[in-house]
Amino acid sequence: MPQRKKSSSSTPSSTASNKVAAVQSSSERVAEGIIQSLLSGRYVPGQKLIEADLTNQYNLSRGPIREALKRLTAEGIVTLEPHRGASIRCFSREEVTEMMVILEVLVGLMAKLAASAVKQGNDPKPLKEANDLLGPYKEPGTSDLTYIEQRRNFYDALIKISSNSQLAKITPTVEIHIIRAQTLPFLTEKDRNNRIHEYADITNAVLKGDSRLAENTARKHIRATDKRFNTLPDEAFAIRN
User: Fold this and answer.
1) DSSP code for 76
2) For domain 12-88, is the CATH number 1.10.10.10?
């Protein structure tokens, strides 16, 4: 009696699914790598992302690279232009103004929830430590990149104290980093000092457990930041056609 052929362990559909999953996994690795390179200062706003360089860096074909760039474009981190390729996004003046409108509400909410949580007994130590670490950046000659990182830590501390798990998910961390990176070279020493004083005011309001004062102080800080941005030259922003 003839023996039956053993069935293959994988069907064409499962093989195709595995290939799709592999591409997705690879593209996610590339996307996260680009984000980390941006946050670490390796990439800067407006910098070109060359496909050939990325394929060599990640040892991948062009497929996962292009998928990663499409994902980051959809997330507002990369700009893809026909015949010009991909680059790290650079915000226009109008886009920065629109972002400030959103951040005024969002940062105000962060501070409000953090102050309320402190009043209920949450430990404010992470915020106090983050604010203390910003102090040295009043002095000229300090690193712009580490200054940006410490500012990000300040907001991370606000979110941590608030104990609201959704705040981190809706905060546009990478877009905020891009705006900081592209505008910081154009801000004056006075601008930097004023900003650090504003962080101290937010910290003090949160430590008091005064949610209304914390929200108002945080919103005032974002409005002041927007005013500082309005005085910057056009070179600080992308030109939109």
Assistant:
1) T
2) yes
